[in-house]
TrEMBL record:
This is DNA-(apurinic or apyrimidinic site) lyase. SUPFAM superfamilies: DNA-glycosylase (SSF48150), TATA-box binding protein-like (SSF55945). Its EC number is 4.2.99.18. Keywords: DNA damage, DNA repair, Glycosidase, Hydrolase, Lyase, Multifunctional enzyme. One of its GO terms (molecular function) is oxidized purine nucleobase lesion DNA N-glycosylase activity. InterPro entries: DNA_glycosylase, HhH-GPD_domain, HhH_base_excis_C, OGG_N, Oxidative_DNA_repair_enzyme. It is an enzyme of class 4 (lyase).
Length: 295
DNA sequence: GTCCAGGATCGGA
DNA sequence: TCCGATCATGGA
């Protein structure tokens, strides 16, 4: 993708069918992006704040520099991966996956910071997205560092490791606080090397992550996919279970191949877009008939 | 009041 | 190995 620097902004030529901000930032992979009334998205990652918005032909990045864009945001938004090719490949699998894929063709898997991703998905268990976002926002404003623009960074493992359950009570994360503290202490004390996951085969990385308390199969898959960009990871939550039953009856999650994680995001996005189709007592609609006709 | 949410853990069958 | 209860919290 072609990016030019102009008047303090980065202008990236991109069609929404290839890079769609709303699809990317609202698909449940990240929790620190908010859309303002003017349509611009505001977010923070690795202690850097950004405003970004989408027009007909462009993605416009503001509040960053050319240097920071090239060395950080370009990687964060995974601009060097050819999603057009992957999307096409997944569309060829079958009609059900094509249905999901076309609903989210501009979705990209962000390359998020592993520690923040681990914490976020520990906090996600048995919880809903609006509340997860609220908890993380409060965690950052209470214990993160204030950035020049007034935003807060995500607190490091070392900072959280020094806290008690009582210290964490304002963030109202309930029973998850002990999991958060346990992970922070193990990592801060060097008993768990999160950085080492980067070099591990995915299967070994899975086992390693689930050794942390509060990290089961689902959370581990999310950390692998969103924090370590293992595109073969395939998280299954209650939404995915319903969507799999409806769209891919009898099929195993590991039948989706090397880009299973992206397929999973298409399916997840599609199921959230049409919750009525997978609720069990769905009324008969043209789309549900279409789904029924697939199998 | 009940049910549910990007689940994991625990004890008992 | 499998299954159900339980875990905080808040919105629907």
């Amino acid at each position: 993708m072609n990016a030019v620097y102009e008047n303090g902004k980065i202008l990236l030529s991109a069609d929404a069918s290839i890079f769609n901000l709303a699809q990317t930032l609202e698909c449940g992979q990240c929790f620190r992006w908010e859309c303002a009334e003017d349509g611009a998205w505001h977010g923070v990652s690795s202690g850097k704040a950004l405003r970004v918005r989408q027009t007909e032909q462009q993605i416009i990045f503001e509040g960053t520099t050319e240097e920071e864009f090239q060395t950080f945001w370009s990687d964060y938004f995974d601009l060097n991966t050819d999603y057009e090719r992957i999307h096409k490949k997944l569309c060829e699998r079958n009609a059900a996956l094509r249905l999901a894929a076309v609903s989210a063709s501009g979705l990209r898997i962000l390359r998020q910071e592993p520690w923040e991703t681990l914490c976020s998905f520990i906090l996600s268990q048995n919880n809903n997205i609006p509340r997860i976002k609220k908890i993380i926002e409060t965690l950052c404003s209470c214990f993160g560092e204030k950035l020049p623009g007034g935003e807060y960074s995500f607190p490091s493992a070392e900072v959280i490791a020094e806290l008690s359950e009582e210290d964490l009570s304002p963030i109202k994360c309930g029973f998850r606080s002990k999991y958060l503290l346990d992970a922070a202490k193990k990592i801060a004390e060097g008993k768990f090397d999160l950085h080492a996951i980067e070099m591990m085969p995915t299967e070994e990385a899975r086992k390693m992550l689930t050794m942390l308390r509060g990290v089961g199969p689902k959370v581990a898959e999310c950390v692998l996919l969103y924090g370590f960009h293992r595109l073969e990871a395939f998280p299954v939550d209650v939404w995915m279970t319903r969507a799999m039953t409806g769209l891919f009856p009898g099929e195993s999650p590991d039948s989706f191949g090397e880009y299973a994680g992206i397929a999973q995001q298409y399916i997840y996005y599609y199921s959230r877009l049409h919750p009525e189709l997978f609720s069990g007592d769905a009324p008969e609609t043209s789309t549900s008939k279409e789904i029924g006709a697939l199998s």
